[in-house]
Write a structure and sequence with these properties.
single chain; 265 residues; Rossmann fold; 8-stranded mixed beta sheet; 8 helices
């Protein structure tokens, strides 16, 4: 009985600590005309508007879509809440939430197949959700405390697809990016291949998003003259984000990059 009580207390304590940590991501909404985008934003510890910080945009997967402004923190948020990492890599981190009936990337997804069959609509306009993310990014990156030469984007699964599309539609914006178990039309990488260092992750046993998508993207980047990092985890399924976030230099690689800002940017 004593051991059970102690175990229950430990579980409750861990839950409370986790909830407190996630509450550091402040709930916000971005409104553009009649459209609203929920998002959570994390500021560095001891944040000061007189300082300059990098900005990271994190795009979640399809399972975290909704309107609770909470689910998008399920995967990845702990990376940025870790106290040691927050001290070492002070940054503004944004987790927008895609509505249930929308998608980050403009694609058609056939869920009757396994892995999914994905058709990319690269000649179409961005989805409403991604367009709102672009507008949100524009509004925040112009704040005086944001280092415009250190803007980053990354995501997993649907968010990996959204990452590739953000790069394709905004090829001169980001200093570096990462895409976990994502997918894209390989031809689109030409727009940003030599502008944005990219780290690609995928599980070789992924039965949701075929790892061949990432292989094709990496091949296209190499052909375009880029030098992407690529991790293909032989035993990982769709949850390759667990392996990606465990990479010891994940954040140090990302935040080590900066871009040259031209006078018209």
């Amino acid at each position: 009985m004593r051991n059970r009580i102690l175990l229950a207390f430990c579980i409750l304590f861990a839950w409370v600590i986790n909830a407190q940590d996630k509450s550091d991501f402040i709930k916000e909404t971005f409104i553009s005309q009649s459209d609203t985008l929920n998002y959570r934003i994390l500021y560095p510890e001891n944040f000061s508007e007189t300082e300059s910080y990098p900005l990271l945009l994190f795009l979640h997967g399809a399972g975290e879509r909704g309107s609770d402004n909470e689910s998008q923190l399920t995967h990845g948020s702990s990376q940025f809440l870790d106290s040691l990492k927050r001290k070492k890599f002070p940054a503004v981190v944004i987790f927008p939430q895609c509505p249930k009936d929308d998608y980050w990337a403009n694609v058609d997804v056939d869920r009757s197949t396994k892995p999914l069959t994905i058709t990319f609509k690269t000649d179409s306009e961005p989805t409403k959700a991604l367009h709102l993310v672009e507008k949100l990014l524009d509004s925040i990156k112009n704040q005086p405390f944001i280092a415009k030469n250190r803007l980053y984007v990354g995501g997993l699964s649907m968010g990996g697809m959204g990452t590739y599309e953000m790069l394709y539609r905004n090829p001169d914006t980001f200093a570096a990016a990462f895409a976990i178990c994502g997918a894209a039309e390989p031809e689109t990488v030409k727009a940003y291949a030599n502008n944005t260092p990219l780290w690609v992750f995928h599980g070789a046993q992924d039965d949701v998003v075929n790892p061949q998508y990432s292989v094709n993207i990496v091949n296209a980047l190499l052909k375009a003259g880029a030098h992407p990092r690529f991790n293909l985890y032989d035993t990982a399924n769709h949850n390759s984000w667990d392996s990606a976030f465990a990479e010891p230099d994940f954040l140090s690689w990302l935040f080590s990059h900066s871009k040259t800002i031209t006078s018209n940017e």
